[in-house]
Amino acid sequence: MTIIFDLDGTLLNTIDDLGYACNYALEQTGYPTHHIEEYPRMVGNGINNLIRRALPEAERTEENILRVRAHFVPYYDAHNSDYTRPYEGIPDLLQSLKAQGHHLAVASNKYQAATEKIVSHFFPGIFDVILGEREGIERKPNPQIVYDILSSLSANDSERSVSANGLSAQAVCQSAGRSILYLGDSLVDRDTAANAHAPFVACSWGFVSRQALIEAGVSRIIDQPAELALDIYIHQSILPQYDAFDGGHRRDHAETVISESLKLARTNNADETMAYVIAAYHDLGLKIDRELHHIHSGEILMADNTLRQFFTPDQLLTMRDAVEDHRASSKNPPRTIYGAIVAEADRQIDPLTVIHRTMAYSRKLLPEADFETLYQRSLAHLHEKYAEGGYMKLWLHSERNVQGLAALRSLIHEEPHLRTLCREWFDKSEAL
Question: For residues 198 and 4, is the Cβ–Cβ distance under 8 A?
Fold first, then answer.
């Protein structure tokens, strides 16, 4: 697996050396300096942007930025390891991942020379690719740095060199025959991963607080470097299994359930990591049987010895119960808050998506049926499950699902409109 790390705030606490270098450059050019504690809010978009934020607002011209940078760079090159240190647990994590055979890379907005120097100093021989800010290449959150990392790894492995320009990271990964995970501490990293269609994990020990990450809508956040091992396992061994399922239960569905479960865990004071894994396993039983997939999913979770490295036996039992309780057709309420969380997250009541998934399942059951037959079967199912008195229940009444259910019920009762939407899906599927 390829694991891409941000540098400042993720691998290394560099804020003191960055702050002292910036203060030195400001002093040399006649500008006021800042307390070191102020610098975390200024970093994240490269040296020029750091200097721009550090300058008085009226002085933020390109000419002044370059004047300050001319003093910053030589000072920082000579002093970038004075106070900088790896975060606790990072060296052990990197050594472990390297020993396991993962491809490791750094993607930084720090200029290339400093990125290479500081990474080589603190982590000699660890990283396969080290990329920073380079002339002619847009900085993060532009995803080109991700594409370049993957292309470089492909070439280094003597595989077919990947032409990444214009491709998503997902496409590049598929071409290179490997999966990817991106770890960073900032919203710039979140956006870089999103722009590259790469899975993102945020760390809370960096320059952006956990609360700020949550308020910005970041889903998965880890608090200790060792926790990344679980995310690697989930992304490498669990989520790919969803790729073989039907269109309504593919990996994007599992990822959405994970994201919604994490939000609900936070608002219900539940363990985020337990909710994360429950969501990742909730539909795995589909590879055995659809009717009892929730039971099989719980069995798969309990039989997975890897999870015993991260959870106690009691936690695993709670997680199994939650997986079993997620199904919408269950007549009994979930036994725990975790079951309520995954059940609510699994609902994903987007009216158009529900209608399309219902038609797709009808087509799967009746592959040769005409439109009217599929429509009548789908209409009956929508009434049975989602209409007033239907068997689908909301346990936590999240705003998203409450609003979605109300909109879906309106569509169910506006049959001409519903028929039109189903017809559009049918005609499009026929054309494929």
Answer: yes
How far apart are alpha carbons 45 and 189 in whole angstroms?
Answer: 10
| Model pLDDT, residue 347 | 86
Rounded to an integer, what distance in angstroms lies between the CA atom of residue 64 and that of residue 69? 8
Report d(CA 71, CA 66) in Å as an integer.
Answer: 9
Mean pLDDT confidence for 387-411 = 89
CB within 8 A of 296, min separation 6: which ones?
Answer: 284, 285, 288, 289
Count of CB atoms within 10 A of residue 322's CB?
A: 30
* Cβ–Cβ < 8 Å for 219, 225: no
**What pLDDT is recorded for position 172?**
57
The span from the CA of 195 to the CA of 169, in Å, is 9
Nearby residues of 303 by Cβ (< 8 Å), 6 or more positions away: none
CB atoms within 10 A of CB 363: 17
Q: How far apart are CA 337 and CA 346, in angstroms?
A: 14
For the segment 396-407, the average pLDDT, to the nearest whole number, is: 89
Segment 301-358, tens digit of pLDDT:
999 999 999 999 999 999 999 999 998 777 789 999 999 999 999 987 889 989 998 9
Closest to 387 in 3D by CA, of 359, 360, 414 = 414
Q: Which domains does the chain have, with CATH numbers?
A: 13-84 (1.10.150), 349-431 (no CATH)
How far is Cα 226 from Cα 38, in angstroms, rounded to an integer?
29
Average pLDDT over the chain, rounded to whole? Answer: 92
Q: Hey, which bits of 337-402 come out as E strands? A: none
Residue environment code for 151-160, b if the CB has 16+ CB neighbours within 10 A, otherwise e: bbbbeeeeee
Q: pLDDT tens digits for 7-40?
A: 999 999 999 999 999 999 999 999 999 999 999 9
Reported as type and span, the H/E element at residue 129 is strand 129-133
CA-wise closest residue to 130 among 108, 147, 151, 150: 108
Radius of gyration of the chain (CA): 25
pTM (two decimals): 0.85
Query: What pairs with residue 12 in β-bridges?
Result: 8, 86
State how far the Cα of 107 lies from the Cα of 207, in Å rounded to an integer: 16
DSSP helix/strand/coil, 8? strand
Query: Can you tell me whether residue 105 is helix, strand or coil?
Result: strand
Nearest to 276 by CA among 328, 240, 311: 311
Query: Which pLDDT belongs to residue 167?
Result: 52
